[in-house]
Write a structure and sequence with these properties.
The chain is an alpha/beta fold. The chain has twelve helices and twelve strands. Strands 2-1-3-4-5-11 form a six-stranded parallel sheet, sandwiched between helices. A four-stranded parallel sheet has the order 7-6-8-9, sandwiched between helices. Strands 10-12 form a two-stranded antiparallel sheet. The chain is elongated, with a radius of gyration of 25 Å. This is Ribose operon repressor. It holds the Pfam family Peripla_BP_3. Keywords: DNA-binding, Repressor, Transcription, Transcription regulation.
């Protein structure tokens, strides 16, 4: 920067103002500075700037990704929001491994990220020793957080979503309704299942034990669970799948048995992933606002970075029914 200032015949602070556009500089001076920058092939040092400003304009995100497109769609919303607000995103996938989660968290904190977004499914949280070395890093938990945190939480109202999905099947005239629920050590899966139970009880419908299957939120889990339901002496005539990935797996199991959705069996999913509208027939589902989840998480994290003493908050997003053609009226 000193070389640029010397060549342009200005002060280093003027060069800084031109680069950062944080103060008015005349067009002629700006032109000289930009010309000097071009001649010297100068590139500002993000590291030097972060040391001076004590902020890296970088956000770290720790998540458990899988074949489920839900994660990719949430990350897309996070990345877009970061870009629009001038932040870079460093993404670490734990792949469900506790040791890898700890290592990834340590890596993000060592890189001095300004804040953390955490969306993990591990039953055990990160080592307290890691957080204790970086006590002031703002954190926002997204959707499902298996461990306690002093940070903010942004989540979907999964209980209401489970009720909405089940009520839709009941209103369509179904009584033999099965639930392919997600893993019950995950709070959204548990809440969706409880919403299912609440809707069934409110309608005074029997909840058959053999119609309840706990799976893993993956395509293969839905496929295996649907095969178990179809093998029953008296299979259900409607299914609430705890997420769209399992609903897609259920479609495949039904197809392989020579049956059709919704002629032989109706299905409703949860999440409204992009794939759901391209299924045959298109999948009726509960829309989870994934882009909004990502946007709100980034906005809340930046607010937390600017207001470290603000009280932690819990923001709950409202799901809504998306009717397509996988549920027929009886």
């Amino acid at each position: 920067m000193k070389d640029v200032a010397r060549l342009a015949g200005v002060s280093t602070s003027t060069v800084s103002h031109v680069i950062n556009q944080n103060r008015y500089v005349s067009e002629s001076v700006t032109s000289r500075v930009k010309s000097a920058i071009e001649q010297l092939n100068y590139a500002p040092s993000a590291l030097a700037r972060s040391l001076k400003m004590n902020r890296t304009n970088t956000i770290g995100m720790l998540l458990t990704a899988s074949n489920n497109p839900f994660y990719a769609e949430v990350v897309r919303g996070v990345e877009r929001s970061c870009y629009e607000l001038g932040y870079s995103l460093i993404l670490c996938n734990t792949e469900g491994d506790f040791k890898r989660m700890d290592h990834s968290l340590e890596t993000l904190l060592q890189k001095r990220v300004d804040g953390l977004l955490i969306m993990c499914t591990e039953a055990q949280g990160p080592s307290k020793a890691v957080f204790s070395r970086y006590p002031s890093v703002p954190t926002v938990m997204m959707d499902w957080s298996p461990f306690e945190s002093a940070g903010d939480i942004i989540q979907d109202n999964s209980f209401l979503g489970g009720e909405i999905a089940t009520r839709h099947l009941i209103d369509a005239g179904f009584t033999r309704i099965a639930c392919i629920a997600g893993p019950q050590d995950k709070s959204p899966a548990q809440a969706r299942y409880q919403g299912f139970l609440q809707a069934m009880k409110a309608a005074s419908l029997n909840i058959h034990e053999e119609y309840i299957i706990f799976s893993d939120f993956e395509f293969s889990g839905g496929f295996d669970s649907m095969n178990k339901l179809l093998a029953l002496p008296n299979p259900p005539d409607a299914i609430f799948a705890g997420n769209d990935a399992m609903a897609v797996g259920a479609y495949q199991a039904i197809y392989q048995k020579g049956m059709k959705v919704p002629d032989d069996i109706s299905i409703i999913g949860y999440d409204d992933i992009a794939l759901s509208s391209y299924m045959i027939p298109p999948l009726t589902t509960v829309h989870q606002p994934k882009d909004e989840l990502g946007q709100q998480a980034v906005n809340q994290l930046i607010y937390r970075m600017d207001n470290p003493d603000a009280e932690p908050s819990v923001l709950v997003l409202t799901p809504k029914l998306v009717e397509r053609q996988s549920v027929r009226k009886r």
